[in-house]
Specification:
Order of helices and strands: HHHEEEEEEEHHHHEHHH
Strand order of the largest sheet: 3-2-5
Largest sheet: 3 strands, antiparallel
Distance between the termini: 109 Å
Number of strands: 8
Helix content: 40-55%
Number of helices: 10
Structural class: alpha+beta
Mean pLDDT: 78
Strand content: 15-25%
Length: 279
């Protein structure tokens, strides 16, 4: 298995590295004829030989189907021979594309819909032309497959909470896979995770129940603290009768400030018991 992988990798690299500058006798004859035609038809042929490559582009030149150089041409003006030279322009700018919604089955058997966005650029123009037929389209398809493979190994909780870690994992996998194509994956982001409606309702009910339970616990703790404070206050009032009178006057002031038409006169319970005993 290892030997097969080595042979496969070496054959892939030979597409770029194993070029030969020797065109053979017939090749040099065709080159000579092309040069002679260019000289004889000068200056008209100059418009066919001079090509302009933009600052953000590089040109991969082929002469009789072979690479003329291991390095791309440009930017600026490049010279090509008519009839025997062909060239391919490669855009070096960062390209972004959106990954459409993918139905993914998580590790805990939950079906979710996930989409994302990928930013990449061509790092090696020659590899992007020679090693793959359509680098952008291939990267697009590989991103969809990688999204399913990476997120399929995660639980729903990890999928919702650790998006940054999953984005890094996808970036590493994509960058490693597209390196032979001359592609550099700069960034991968997960845009949205859509859950089924039934699962959303279940999670909402669960969150509501947890909040209600927490509210009841907090209320019980408040009642317990209040009862302890009242117990301490009763001890203080029992030791100082004047404190009860002060508390009574303070309560009257509070009631009067809230509702001026209501005045409360508390009666001691001992007085009521005295009238009851007389009967």
């Amino acid at each position: 298995m290892t030997n097969h992988a080595k042979v496969h990798d070496s054959s892939r690299e030979n597409l770029v590295d194993a070029y030969s500058g020797k065109l053979g006798g017939w090749g040099w004859l065709l080159v000579t004829l092309s040069l002679m035609m260019t000289i004889l038809t000068f200056p008209i042929s100059i418009f066919m030989c001079i090509k302009v490559v933009q600052q953000y582009e590089r040109a991969v030149v082929f002469r009789l189907g072979r690479l003329t150089d291991k390095k791309p041409k440009g930017p600026g003006i490049i010279f090509v021979l008519p009839c025997i030279d062909t060239f391919v322009k490669v855009d070096m700018r960062t390209v972004s594309f959106g990954i459409p919604h993918q139905e993914i089955l998580t590790k805990d058997s939950v079906t979710v819909s996930v989409d994302g966005v990928v930013y990449f650029r061509v790092n090696c123009p020659i590899s992007s032309v020679v090693n793959v037929s359509n680098a952008h389209f291939s990267t697009h398809l590989l991103a969809q497959t990688t999204l399913r493979n990476v997120l399929g190994t995660k639980n729903l909780a990890e999928l919702l909470s650790d998006r940054e870690g999953m984005s890094r994992s996808m970036q590493v996998c994509l960058d490693e896979a597209t390196n032979p194509w001359g592609i550099k994956v700069e960034r991968v982001e997960i845009k949205d995770v859509t859950l089924p409606q039934q699962l959303q309702r279940s999670m909402a009910v669960e969150a509501e129940a947890m909040r209600e339970a927490r509210a009841k616990v907090i209320a019980a703790e408040g009642e317990m603290n209040a009862s302890r404070a009242l117990k301490e206050a009763s001890v203080v009032i029992a030791e100082s009768p004047s404190a009860l009178q002060l508390r009574y006057l303070q309560t009257l002031g509070t009631v009067a400030a809230q509702n001026n038409s209501t005045i409360v006169f508390p009666l001691p319970i001992d007085l009521m018991q005295h009238f009851m005993y007389r009967k």
